[in-house]
């Protein structure tokens, strides 16, 4: 009796798996992949749904957590099951060099000069400018920290600190806390002594660090008082302030900003629709709506200029915020992530 | 082995058969692919065939002869398949950081140079003056390699080709691997300690109570990981429910550190993996006749001895399957340790995920997976040896 | 008679249901007592309370004059044989039998000796290394019995131990258990719903109905002189006849049934309506008029049973079933006859 039931279960399972495969093999609607959460909710409202309406064809959206391995696996599978993906700078650089992306048709986008220079590449066009910055709960901290040196100062600001687990967004901040000027961070990090210096500085703070991994965690940590300050993604900060009435503040000097880009996966069956979608999402009249929902900067210069002043202040691209910020050096990380990650793990394990 | 215990064991197995099938389909096959990926190393020879030939005569001690320069320039100039080139670059960059930017620059230079054979590499990038970059190419020529497997164990080959340990502070795979087994083992013990009495309770309870108990243990399986983690966060954090309750009861003065450490990881993982322990034990216990424990009591066995001599041996097949299942599943965890663990609770799967997803270094990911698999199989063999032993506990 | 086991005013409730109602029961040392009754009559609960698996709601249980009401089962020194034997499936026959001795921390060598002797006694020695699942039902039963006996307990409790066996094997085991009882002088409390089993084996039978004792007596007394209607009907077959007491004396009475006055045995007061029990095989059937307790009857039906015949007799409104030997004559339907019986064979039942 039991084995009959088991066989039935196994049968059902294989049938489901089989059916899944068949459906997957059929012609597919345009599939756009982004970072999920309330960011993707906003994108759905201002990009996905209006574009589907305009083109008269359905648009599927999925979310992912990044990683060039994911892109590589999709592309090497032959026909990828994603079309448009929003990628980080490293994935753009890596994938572009490795031929994982289609070349963009810049005429459809209105020309390269319409965008910030850093947002322009053969394979991708910038979608947002976002920032990783020191943040804290202004309702809990009487005195405001102003720099990474303050972040490292456990005498002045007793309590735990949140940092992203991994060498990226930890080594840079350590160097700045150690007195390296924002502009020289990657130059210093490119030397062996610079890496040693960063790890040595991290050593000092190690017992006070709570490591986080997903973008929602630092907010939880701040909200619960588990940490007094943390590195965090700026969009999340203004989001939670709006949604939950928090008074979390971002310290812009010493923040690291990066550009996420839209790319089209190589051999996408919906190449033309994908290009049309990217053009739609890059058009100033559409892009300008984004900061209302989430505090990300806009790579389209015309759109960036049209953002109302009250929203402008929270964006990484606001001139004041940009003044002492560091642009992420994607090339550096592309070259060094494996080695530094290995060393970082070893350092953590010590 | 008696027919009854064969029946018990097969019953426990039938319960997990769909899971086994699932594992075979979605884990064994991809893993095999990864295993081959960990030893096959032909990305560089495919793209740089002339260089590979030209390097055969070079001993690798100093800079290579000009013939190698010419061959490399020609290979780079004629490389058509961009994805293959990308793979070669990834492979080389994994050996020596910096290769990516170096090669990208050099490819452009080779394609634009009027005479590739005379390309001045040092002028394109001064790094070509360092023999280690050249050596990395030479080392990548053989089609099979053990470097991934060695690196997975924090070993490498030195310039002379003999195997040496990585210098301390440079790699931590062994520590992380050991830690993975310690965490998985602790979780298995915790699951057994909770799961056995729980399954006994569920098997002894009747009707609605039993249904509720089984439902309660299954709920975490059906709950989203993030919701679950958030719930643990609320319970375990410094100002969380548990600490506040204990504090207001006057049991503790300062909040206990329950989260972002090993304890938090074990609590959260035990919670999730408990069904894998409870269900096999339960399925075995439910088949145990109700009157055995009264019989043992009437024959003079107190509750503890009756449990030890009668119930535990009968539950053993279920307990063993449960332990095996929990341990196997626990080894592969990395999200939970990442979310509720501290700095030293990262498990090996997160390192594998870093290579597989983050850097597309499938060779390294496969090698780590292979080592993990080998150790797990070894443990399984030990388990098989132990569980076949006829000696019962206390007998 | 000094009681070895005594139930004193024991009541057991399961929620609102009273399963055992104010039981008083004495069991002598060396006695074989059967607890007989239909399912739900409380007999198994009594056994479970004696073994210690259930606690009485009120009242006390004494063993050798010491209260054991709250003693846990493993300290009671009672061997229990369960309905489905309850052998430990992971142990061999020998290990099962050795179990109670190990619990008593008997030295190894002695355990081996005693286990061997016990298994010899029930002729199971050749099977000592088998697991219970490799034995037949009868063999399992014998292992269970041996296991309950081997540690020489004060009392052996048996909960319908033969219920799962086929008829032939059951009868064989009945004799074997009776034999063991006599040889070893054991005190046995035996729960059954099978009246013939109880009659065959017991020194005394306690008949239970709805949580109360209906009658405790020797098998013969329970059969021949049932005190209540329930006992009369539950054990064997009987004729129940309604009548009115016209005269009453010591242990005897005259009861009018229809037109006839019958001399019966029993303690009653005159003027009461009573039921009489008369076993079929106690009815004598003849052609000639009898002196006393004679009824003129007509044979209404005759059923052939091989070794005997069952006759349905009618006398006015009274209908009786009688048992006739095949050689006793030809009782064709319609034959007129006289049925008679001795006064001590017809019992007045307490209503």
Automatic annotation (TrEMBL), chain A:
Pfam families to which the protein is assigned, alphabetical: SBP_bac_8
InterPro entries: SBP (IPR006059)
Keyword Signal listed: yes
Keyword field: Periplasm, Signal
Protein name: Putative spermidine/putrescine transport system substrate-binding protein
From TrEMBL, chain B:
Compartments in which it is found: Cell membrane
Keyword Membrane: yes
Bilayer topology term: Multi-pass membrane protein
Domain of life: Bacteria
Annotated keywords: Cell membrane, Membrane, Transmembrane, Transmembrane helix, Transport
Stored PROSITE patterns: ABC_TM1
Pfam families linked: BPD_transp_1
Protein name: Putative spermidine/putrescine transport system permease protein
UniProtKB/TrEMBL annotation, chain C:
Catalytic class of the enzyme: translocase
EC number(s) reported in the record: 7.6.2.11
Location of the ABC transporter domain: 5-235
Transmembrane portions of the chain: none
Catalytic activity: ATP + H2O + polyamine-[polyamine-binding protein]Side 1 = ADP + phosphate + polyamineSide 2 + [polyamine-binding protein]Side 1
Entries under Gene3D superfamilies matching the protein: 2.40.50.100, P-loop containing nucleotide triphosphate hydrolases
Source species, domain of life: Bacteria
Record bears the keyword Membrane: yes
Keyword Membrane among UniProt keywords: yes
UniProt-listed InterPro entries: AAA+_ATPase, ABC_SmlMolc_Importer, ABC_transporter-like_ATP-bd, Mo/tungstate-bd_C_term_dom, P-loop_NTPase, PotA-like, PotA_ATP-bd, Transp-assoc_OB_typ2
Signal peptide as annotated in the record: none
A molecular-function term among this protein's GO annotations: ATP hydrolysis activity
Keyword vocabulary terms for this entry: ATP-binding, Cell membrane, Membrane, Nucleotide-binding, Translocase, Transport
Function of the protein: Part of the ABC transporter complex PotABCD involved in spermidine/putrescine import. Responsible for energy coupling to the transport system.
Subunit structure: The complex is composed of two ATP-binding proteins (PotA), two transmembrane proteins (PotB and PotC) and a solute-binding protein (PotD).
Family stated for the protein in its record: Belongs to the ABC transporter superfamily. Spermidine/putrescine importer (TC 3.A.1.11.1) family.
Protein name per its UniProtKB record: Spermidine/putrescine import ATP-binding protein PotA
This protein's encoding gene: potA
